[in-house]
Amino acid sequence: MFRTSLAIALVAALGASTSALAHPKMVAANPPANGRVTASPQAIRITFSEAVFANFSGLVVKDHAGHVMKTGRPTVDPADKTVLVAPFARPLAAGVYHVEWHAVAADTHRVTGQFMFTIG
């Protein structure tokens, strides 16, 4: 009986620690990852699997030649803390753009990712 109770407690503890170690994952983006839009977006919006901290998260957008596109300081959408938003300083020209992002959530681990999108 003691061994069964100990085994159940151990399995429960391992399950709880696994969920506590989860990291934020990108679940959506606007403009869409690897997608095409017809006009310049006003901002990049990346949705994560959990709330992120804007002060420790961010992104860089580069054109096909590697030039960095100027964005405003990334913020978290006040209506949805899982969405990181970075407005563009000016409209983007038609072309291919590469987004490199990093995000930090409650577990304090920094995760990174990237995607591309096309305008035109």
- What's the total number of strands? 9
Task: Give the N-terminus to C-terminus distance in angstroms.
Answer: 67 Å
Largest sheet: 5 strands, mixed
User: What structural category characterises the helix and strand content?
Assistant: alpha+beta
**Share of residues in helices:** 10-25%
* Gyration radius over CA: 19 Å
* Element order: H for helix, E for strand: HEEEEEEEEE
Strand content: 35-45%
- Return the average pLDDT rounded to an integer: 87
Oligomer class: single chain
The total of helices stands at: 1
In the predicted model, the low-confidence regions spanning at least 5 consecutive residues are: 4-20
Q: Name the shape in a single word.
A: elongated
Strand order of the largest sheet: 2-9-8-4-5
Detailed description of the structure:
By secondary structure, this protein is of the alpha+beta class. Helices cover 16% and strands 41% of the residues. It is built from 1 helix and 9 strands; from the N terminus they run αβββββββββ. It has a 5-stranded mixed beta sheet with strand order 2-9-8-4-5, with no helix packed on it. Strands 1-3-7-6 form a 4-stranded antiparallel beta sheet, with no helix packed on it. The longest helix is centred in the first third of the chain and has 19 residues, at 2-20. The chain is elongated.
Element layout with pairings:
Blueprint (H helix, E strand, L loop, with lengths): L1 H19 L5 E5 L4 E3 L5 E6 L9 E6 L4 E2 L5 E2 L6 E5 L7 E10 L5 E10 L1
